[in-house]
Amino acid sequence: MNLKPITIAIDGYSSTGKSTLAKDLAVALGLNYIDSGAMYRAVALFALENGLARNGKVSSELIKILDSIDISFHFNPLTKKSDTLLNGVNVEEKIREKAVSDIVSEVAAIPEVRRHLVKLQKNLGKGGGVVMDGRDIGSVVFPNAELKIFMTADEDVRVNRRLAELKSKGYSPSFDEVRENLRHRDHLDSTREDSPLTRTNDAILLDNTNLNQEEQLQLAINWAKKAAEDQPCVKY
Ligand code: CDP
After folding, report:
1. 75 alpha carbon to ligand 1 midpoint, in Å?
2. Spacing of C-alpha 143 from chain mean position
3. Ligand 1 neighbours (beta carbon < 6 A)
4. Mean pLDDT across the stretch 102-106?
5. Could you report the per-residue pLDDT of 174-213, keeping only the tens digit for each?
6. Which pLDDT value is given to residue 4?
7. Mean pLDDT of the chain
8. What CA–CA distances, in Å, run from 36 to 77, 108, 130, 190?
9. Residue 3: its pLDDT value, please?
10. Which of 118, 189, 208 has most ligand 1 atoms within 8 Å of its beta carbon, as the pocket-test mutant?
11. This prediction's pTM
């Protein structure tokens, strides 16, 4: 589809399908996809691998070595697979593991970590033509994005989607375990002091409890077309 290279910000609760919609939109509109959550997960993995996170507590030493953490992405529009590279190593699988999910929201609540990653995210999106999903994309990273979408869905639906995703990757957590992790992260993400998860006034609410992947994509494509027609291209 030949559309102006706009910036699309997708925020919302855990496991609402943000990355699925973001990748579908990126492919449909010829934009780049960036998974900001993967960046927080990569920093959390780095902390675990370097003994800087134990028993759910993250050491303040992490702040001092943020500059030694390099994160990059490779998005393949043909397979819709986004790989996350941590210091050159593909960690896409590892950052989805439970140990990382258990501490990522603690890591993401550290202001220095946020400042560091938001800077990288702004840089990755400068020039526009990007779809980024996360928690603070419309509010902090790209406040001038031409299109902002805020996603939500019923809790049981979200837990079942995440369960299916983890099972397809060979993990077998229980429903309660997954629900506990989603609740824990949503609570921390919504109540942290630094850039909590919020819906900005200009974000379109997308409740996809009863929508399938194709239906949500069609809705979002229509919003994107309208946004591209309505507004001048914003540069960051
Ligand atoms: O895919 P899911 O919705 O479960 O989470 P994610 O996008 O992989 O993000 C993992 C965690 O990173 C979230 O629970 C947040 O704590 C944090 N995060 C954030 O604080 N800000 C962002 N822009 C993206 C993620």
Report:
1. 18
2. 16
3. 14-15, 18-19, 36-37, 40-41, 104-105, 108, 134-137, 185, 189
4. 95
5. 999 999 999 999 999 999 999 999 999 999 999 999 999 9
6. 84
7. 94
8. 18, 11, 12, 17
9. 77
10. 189
11. 0.94
The two structure tokens encoding residue 218: 């069609």
CA–CA dist 57, 140 (Å, integer): 26
Kindly give the number of the ligand 1 atom that is closest to the alpha carbon of 105.
Answer: 16
Task: Please give the average per-residue pLDDT across 61-83, as a whole number.
Answer: 95
Atom of ligand 1 nearest to the CA of 182: 4
pLDDT tens figures, 133-157: 999 999 999 999 999 999 999 999 9
